[in-house]
């Protein structure tokens, strides 16, 4: 190997040594710049509602160096993603108060995800936020048929060490484990339900709770859909209301569609009452969102016998079970109105 003269070797060594901190400083500067850009703008979604195929969203962007120049360069990129991975995209400017709002008609149906992220001069400038929502299929000629009538419920059963059958409820912890209902007897992971005096739930009329809705001990008194059922020391029950008992938001009447034996739709108005409290247990939630482990309604239907199953999950908000999830399994026979 050719040897460099001593003077040149020393010079090369000193030059290489000098470049090491320079490169480290450059890498640190690049990392700091990227970190600053990530922290530059953070999007929050303040409102998300679905009305038919129309999605409405509003939110706020928290800017770092909040100057007019930065604001003019900042937009919010919105991406609506279907369960198949298809996407619809929209870019919206923010106003002088750092807010944004928009609406559009989507071609997607079913369980969707909407994400929002801020961009400065077209470059991502913050972390993305996402919300789940549902767009329910509408009835069209030759499409799904709307089932109008009463979904009569089959009583539930929960023998010890066996999976429940019929109509029943499961309370799931945030860790997705069954919360034991000490009042249920049998297999306490499941709470069997019995039909109320209407036989089940209606897609023709709301079935609100009576007034008062609770007795002096806090047990629920509604008995149209299911009979009041013991849960953790007090009776709980179910009703449907035009105005959500928990949030006050408007609730559509339950809608169930049959498409060649497959059921879909919405049961937003489904309300569970327990211990002098009301908890929306519908799907989707009022406004069309699917928070937490909430899932879209699904099921099966035999048009010859009327036999059906309906299943969904709904996150619990507020009270001692805040953050838990209610899992509903309904079986029975559909009886058309009329």
Describe the structure in your own words.
The chain is built from 2 helices and 22 strands. By secondary structure, it is mainly beta. The longest helix is centred in the first third of the chain and has 35 residues, at 6-40. A hairpin with a 2-residue loop joins strand 18 and strand 19 (277-280). It folds into 2 domains: 41-135, Immunoglobulin-like; 145-336, no CATH class. The protein has helices at 6-40, 68-73, and strands spanning 41-51, 54-63, 74-81, 87-93, 99-105, 110-120, 123-124, 129-135, 145-146, 149-153, 168-172, 191-192, 200-202, 229-231, 234-240, 255-259, 262-266, 270-274, 277-280, 298-301, 307-315, 325-336.
List the helices and strands and how they pair.
Layout: H1 6-40, E1 41-51, E2 54-63, H2 68-73, E3 74-81, E4 87-93, E5 99-105, E6 110-120, E7 123-124, E8 129-135, E9 145-146, E10 149-153, E11 168-172, E12 191-192, E13 200-202, E14 229-231, E15 234-240, E16 255-259, E17 262-266, E18 270-274, E19 277-280, E20 298-301, E21 307-315, E22 325-336
Antiparallel strand pairs: 1-2, 2-5, 3-4, 3-6, 6-7, 6-8, 9-16, 10-13, 10-22, 11-12, 11-22, 14-15, 15-18, 16-17, 17-20, 18-19, 20-21, 21-22
């Amino acid at each position: 190997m050719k040897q460099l003269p001593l003077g040149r070797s020393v010079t090369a060594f000193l030059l290489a040594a000098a470049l090491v901190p320079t490169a480290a400083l450059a890498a640190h500067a690049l990392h700091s710049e990227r970190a600053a850009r990530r922290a530059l703008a953070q999007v929050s979604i303040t409102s998300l509602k679905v009305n038919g195929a129309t999605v409405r969203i509003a939110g706020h962007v928290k800017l770092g160096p909040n100057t007019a120049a930065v604001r003019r360069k900042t937009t919010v990129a919105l991406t609506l993603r279907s369960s198949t991975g298809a996407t619809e995209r929209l870019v919206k400017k923010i106003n002088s108060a750092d807010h944004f709002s928009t609406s559009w008609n989507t071609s997607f149906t079913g369980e969707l995800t909407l994400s929002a992220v801020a961009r400065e001069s077209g470059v991502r400038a913050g972390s993305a936020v996402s919300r789940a929502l549902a767009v329910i299929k509408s009835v069209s000629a030759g499409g799904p048929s709307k089932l109008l009538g009463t979904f009569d419920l089959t009583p539930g059963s929960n023998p010890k060490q066996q999976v429940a059958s019929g109509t029943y409820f499961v309370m799931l912890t945030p860790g997705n484990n069954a919360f034991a209902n000490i009042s249920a007897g049998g297999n306490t992971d499941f709470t069997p339900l019995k039909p109320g005096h209407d036989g089940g739930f209606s897609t023709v009329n709301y079935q609100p709770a009576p007034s008062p809705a609770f007795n002096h001990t806090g047990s629920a008194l509604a008995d149209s859909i299911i009979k009041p059922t013991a849960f953790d020391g007090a009776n709980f029950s179910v009703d449907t209301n035009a105005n959500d008992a928990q949030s006050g938001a408007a609730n559509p009447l339950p809608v169930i569609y049959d498409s060649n034996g497959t059921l879909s739709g919405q049961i937003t108005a489904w309300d569970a009452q327990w211990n002098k409290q009301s908890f929306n247990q519908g799907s989707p939630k009022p406004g069309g969102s699917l928070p937490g482990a909430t899932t879209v309604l699904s099921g099966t239907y035999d048009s010859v016998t009327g036999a059906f199953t309906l299943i969904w999950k709904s996150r619990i908000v507020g009270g001692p079970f805040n953050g838990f999830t209610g899992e509903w399994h309904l079986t029975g026979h559909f009886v058309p109105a009329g």
